[in-house]
Amino acid sequence: MRIAIAEFKQETNTFVPFTTTLQTFEEQYLHRGDALLTAFGKARLEIPGALDALREAGATPVPILATMAMASGTVERKSFDILMGEIETRLKAAGKVDGVFLALHGAMIIEDEPDAEAEIVRRVRAVVGPGIPITVSLDLHGHITAAMIQPDVAYIGYREFPHIDMYETGYRAARLLVDWINGKVRPPATYLDAEEILRRQPDVAEYRVQLDARGAMHELTLEVEAAPGCSQAALQNTLQDSLHAALNLRVPVSVLPPGSLPRFEMKARRWVQAPQS
Fold this sequence. Notes:
Elements: E1 2-12, H1 22-28, E2 29-32, H2 36-39, H3 46-57, E3 60-72, H4 77-93, E4 99-103, H5 116-128, E5 134-138, E6 153-157, H6 166-181, H7 194-199, E7 204-212, E8 219-226, H8 232-247, E9 253-256, E10 271-273
Parallel strand pairs: 1-3, 1-4, 4-5, 5-6, 7-10, 8-9
Antiparallel strand pairs: 2-3, 7-8
Helix pairs in contact: 3-6, 4-5
């Protein structure tokens, strides 16, 4: 089993008054080919985690390229294409692979493309061909877009802030890739904007999403506050059916009486950790 490994990470801040260039990436690090196998030493990062998972599974890592620029300005298109072009060239030269692991951030913006990660995945897919599984590690606050949801691609994000689980995320992404290739799992490709579904319902006054991360799989529970005068049972059934149609999964929905939930302007505060009792 041959698994290609590449990293191309940058978190864009569009308010920064300078452009991120090839030099910006080089100043952080730029490792090519076999250098990836030892360049990170014992650092608890995604690539070392992925390499350990592949070694345990008896898979052969195919190192391509690894580079990163710290949070900085919009990425220059020319520089992006130089690095992405090298990834494509090295991936072609590597020959047939059974899967690909990509360490990305999730918030890179190019001068003429706000969704850099979708372009990276699309260009990798063009090289390896259809049906080859690709797993992608992302920062906890990476932006998941509809364009990123492509066939046979799975995204695995950090679970911790501060980001103390970068190694574990790379390990999980590579382990998932191995199990996927071996036919043990097949991750679904699903994109859901929960807010979009909720905004369609005039009887939803407020909501909160509880995340339970105690088990091997994260579990979501949706708490919804009903608008005055609406049927709570009917609202519950409508939301559960809508979520099932979008996700092909059953998401538990609890409908609460008016005035039960706090009001938040920011979406992030509506996502809360379930009690760890």
